[in-house]
Amino acid sequence: MIAALILAAGRGTRMRGIDKLLEPVDGQPLLRQQVEIAQHACDLVVVMVPQDGHPRAQALAGTNAQCIAVQDPLGGLGDSLRDGVAALPEVTGFFVVLSDMPDITKDEYNLVAQTLGHKQIVRPLTASGAAGHPIYFDAIVRPEFAFLSGDTGAQSIIARDSSRVGYVQQNDNRARRDLDTPEDWAAWRRETGR
Asked: Rounded to two decimals, what is the model's pTM?
C-alpha cells in the first residue's frame, strides 16, 4: 500500500488573512483538488490540518481522506511530518506533498512511481534542475521521521545519504511552484487563466 501525506497545517501568514488552501482552483478548493489528485495515485491519503473541525478538514468532506490534527499547531513542517508519518498505517512507501502547489497533477505521481524500487527516496526535477514535489519515501526510511522537528521538513533525511535518492526529470517547473502570497496567486491566475 502506498500513501500520500499532504501537509496542510501551516498558518499561511503571508496570505494576510486569506486561507490559500481554500482558494478556488478549477471550481474547488486547492486542498480538495490536491487530495483528489493524490487519491488517483495512492491507496490512502492522510492530510495534516491545524485542528479538528478546521475549515480545511471541512472542505474535504466526502473525499475519504483521513484528516489528522497536528499535535502542536505552532510547530513547523518537521513537526507535521513527524506526526503524519507516525499516524500512517503499515505502508510500502509514501509520498510527501506540499498542499499549496496547484500545478501538481497525477503526472508527477506517475513519473515518480515509474522508478519505485530503484531508490529509497525519489523526487521530480524541474526543467531548470530544481528538486520538487511530490517526494516518495520507501518504508525503510520511515523511522528517520520520528526525529524531525522545526521548519526544515525532511531535508535532513534526504541529505543524509545521496546514494539512496533518485530523481526523475520533468520538462517544466510544475513540481516547484507554490503560491504563498496574494500576489503569487494573482500572477498565477493571470498566467494560467485558472
From this structure: 0.94
Amino acid found at 3: A
What phi and psi values does residue 68 have, to the nearest 5 degrees? -130, 125
- Three-state DSSP at 85 gives helix
Strand (E) or helix (H) holding 84: helix 77-87
Domain boundaries, the chain: 2-192
Superfamily, domain 2-192: Spore Coat Polysaccharide Biosynthesis Protein SpsA; Chain A (3.90.550.10)
Res. 56 pLDDT band, cuts 50 70 90? very high
CA distances from residue 69 to 58, 73, 112, 118 in whole angstroms, order as listed? 13, 8, 28, 33
Q: What is the DSSP letter of 171?
A: S
Per the CB < 8 A criterion, the answer to whether 35 and 54 are in contact is no
User: What is the Cα–Cα distance from 82 to 183, expressed in whole angstroms?
Assistant: 31
Enumerate the β-bridge partners of residue 136: 95, 122
8 Å CB contact between 94 and 174? no
Q: Is the pLDDT of residue 11 over 80?
A: no
Strands 24-25 and 121-125: unpaired
Rounded CA-CA distance 125/46 in Å is 24
Cis peptide bond prior to 134, omega within 30° of 0: yes
Residue pair 83/127 in contact by the 8 Å Cβ criterion: no
